[in-house]
Amino acid sequence: MPFPGVSVQTETGNLLRALANMDNQTAVVISVATEGLQGVVTTVFSLKDAESKGITAAAEPFLHEFLTAFYTELAGNKKLYVFGYANTSTMASMLAVTNEDSGAFKMIKLKNGEITHLAVLRKPDAAYDPGEDFLDEDVAAALTAAKGLCQYFQSKNQPLRVLIEGRVVDGEVANTLEPNTLSNGYCGVVIGGTKADGSASVALALARIAKFPAHVKIGSGENGPLSASAIFIGEDPIEERSDVEDLHDQGFITFHRRPGIAGYYFGVDNMCTNDDTRILVNGSILDKAQRIAAATYTPYLETDVRLNNDGTINETDAKHIEDVLKTAILANMAGQISNADVIIDRDQIVAGTNKISVKVKILPLGYLTWIEVTLGLTSSL
Predict the structure, then answer these.
(1) Which of 31, 60, 83, 286 is deepest in the core (most CB within 10 A)?
(2) 187 phi/psi in degrees, rounded to 5
(3) 70, 119 contact by CB (below 8 A)
(4) 327 phi and psi angles, rounded to 5 deg
(5) pLDDT tens across 225-266, in order?
(6) In this predicted model, what pLDDT tens digit does every residue of 43-93 receive, in sequence order?
């Protein structure tokens, strides 16, 4: 029997604020060990909340490590959807649009389009053969699968963007996958992580997305350096590799240091294409505008409009339909875009077709990715 005494328990995490960013709802598809976490959606709001639901360092080391990195970078509390899967499954199989019962499709559909950004990563089982290339062969397969998944949900006005872990198999082999040639603006591949084991810290990118509005780049200098104290590609610190800028230029989301500033930053938020959605913020802004357009125009379905004698839409009605969406976009995206316009072609025939086509133009913000300064001495000022 112990001596009489007073027992005091301390706890942490109570000072973390709930983050109010409403643009982005994030989710992660990740390999887990606990069968009860496989094939189901677990909602967590903080690391402490996750641990209370059995996601501890002892029971789920890989998932717990992800959540620790995510909430450390987030520096606050925010809802995150977690969908676990067995480590014998591949990222590609989890992203397949045909995998309606046990993949990401199930989670996205259950959440009725609420999810805007999805991360997928994996801790393969010991028997898995990743191939002999620079990257795990599952990465390229996952990109193909994710594109189909995103296209499906975009067609349902539930657009999303996907971040895929770029697991490095052999850091000494030259990379052959060039994301910016893949015409897949839905997806980005993160390369580089806080551990020298080939993994990638997708959690840091997802946290930056969750923390800030859709128009803010994950590498924004105004938001300071990342919480990571070291970054590796394969087994090597990025400071010891000569190909980091090459990987960045090939279209990967990578890390770097900025002269005169401590810490690590993301480079350009590259997506796997070279078109208008080659940076993540452009895709996120388009996705937000699509959701606004769908919500704005849904009440107009099966309502009537006046027609001119030639079957075209009445000018007043057309102008009203244009203005209602333009007003909604400018109101809901103030400060996130430079301008917007909504245009209905007055020559299109509505009589008999019962359809109008509306064109929405978004003028995005500009970003100071490169700044050139001319510096020199002068004999007078």
Answers:
(1) 83
(2) -125, 150
(3) no
(4) -65, -40
(5) 999 999 999 999 999 999 999 999 999 999 999 998 999 999
(6) 999 999 999 999 999 999 999 999 999 999 999 999 999 999 999 999 999
C-alpha distances in Å from residue 247, one per residue of 12, 20, 289: 39, 34, 31
Q: Tell me, what DSSP letter sits at residue 39?
A: T
Q: Which amino acid is at 119?
A: A
Residue type, 207: A
Contacts 24+ apart (CB under 8 A), 11-19: 11/48, 13/46, 13/47, 13/48, 16/46, 16/71, 16/75, 16/76, 16/77, 17/76, 17/77, 18/45, 18/76, 18/77, 18/78, 19/74, 19/76, 19/77, 19/78, 19/210, 19/211
Three-state secondary-structure class, residue 101: coil
Give the C-alpha separation, 255 to 355, whole Å: 47
- DSSP assigned state of 77: B
| Extended beta strands in the chain, E state | 26-31, 41-44, 80-85, 117-121, 161-165, 187-190, 232-233, 236-237, 255-256, 265-266, 337-344, 358-364
- Measured CA to CA, the distance from residue 191 to residue 251 in angstroms comes to 10
E strand residue ranges, 257-326: 265-266
How far, in Å, CA of 13 to CA of 31, rounded? Answer: 26
